[in-house]
Amino acid sequence: MTGRRVAVSGLGVICALGHDLTEVWNGLRGGRLGIAPIRSLDVSKLRFQNGAEVREYDPGSHFGPDLASLLDRFAQFALITAREAVKDSGITLSPGLRERTAVLCGSCLGGQISQDAGFVDIYLQNRDRVHPLTIPRTMANAGASHISMELGTTGPALTISTACSSSNHAIGLAFRMVRSGEADLAIAGGSEAPFGFGLLKAWEAMRVIAPDTCRPFSVDRRGMILGEGGAMLVLEPLEAAKARGARIYAEIAGCGMSSDAHHITHPSAEGANRAMRAALADAEIHPEQVGYLNAHGTGTPGNDPTETQAIRELFGAHAERLAISSTKSMHGHALGAAGALEAVATVMALRCGILPPTMNFTKPDPLCDLDVIPNLARPARVECALSNSFAFGGLNAVLAFRAVARG
Hints:
By secondary structure, this protein is an alpha/beta fold. The chain folds into two domains: about 240 residues, 3-Layer(aba) Sandwich (Peroxisomal Thiolase, Chain A, domain 1), CATH 3.40.47.10; about 150 residues, 3-Layer(aba) Sandwich (Peroxisomal Thiolase, Chain A, domain 1), CATH 3.40.47.10. The chain has 14 helices and 14 strands. Helix 3 packs across helix 7. The longest helix is centred in the first third of the chain and has 17 residues. The radius of gyration is 20 Å and the shape is globular. The model has no long low-confidence stretch (mean pLDDT about 95).
């Protein structure tokens, strides 16, 4: 694909494994488990009690009282990680660059916690009014809007909502904006905060939540575990990053998207295959060059065999040599933020030469017969990697990354 090559030059992340990039990466490489009993609300009336929450989180350490009152938890995560990513990149946002900066965020839920609180006020407490900031707190674009306002960026700013593929779609579109020259810088990723009682009851009704923990690709897997958090990537032209002496984590080389046109909740191997194949074609990467794949890997009975089938059909004999892991086994399934968290994991794996493990693995499943890096991170230098996101509704987005020489 012609156009500018695009570098990942800044990362910001917060999730159940930690409050910044160092903590989260140490958790990923160390196989630390962020899944634990839910503490933020009473879950005694739920069939499941575990989640991957951001622990010891104090909004007051990041925001003054006025801004904190205006931001739902999901938007707080978006703004925190955007700040970290821009600082990490070392870039100076001049007036001219601000006009050429795009902000793309993914979120499938928006301000769910604020919405839940409003419903409690109206329907349970029988109050006549809700909090006056309910609308700006609940709107899904709040994260992108507040990032743009705080950083003063006046280029395109938008939110993508495609369920569990939201962040990968956002990062992929941001990548294409920078590659094409439509933007000279992009801040892209996603955030989610799903721990509201009403939403948890809705997930309970889906019967896809594990009663204990997330065991992707294991024969005794029982479902997913919800997580929360956010992650942002700074994307810029590779040559511009080199010219300013930036630390380049990796090159984002391609993005593939597809729709299953199949079923609202059941995944399709054909659709997943198409998205992975499109990402490789966009990046001009041969399947044999891919050494690591961060799988969607939800730990559900439906996803894992379907994803395995898609990988085997695409990679053929190379699937036997392909290292695969699901980091959802550690940070949970953060829904619209999942792709952003996993993009950070993939980029750091390429930069550091350490492939994060699939934790909680017990016994192989004949239907998931891949090398899933069970329970222990693996030192390995790989040339290229994919990061998969497959959403309810059959909306798929896959990112392709390429390692760069460390400078």
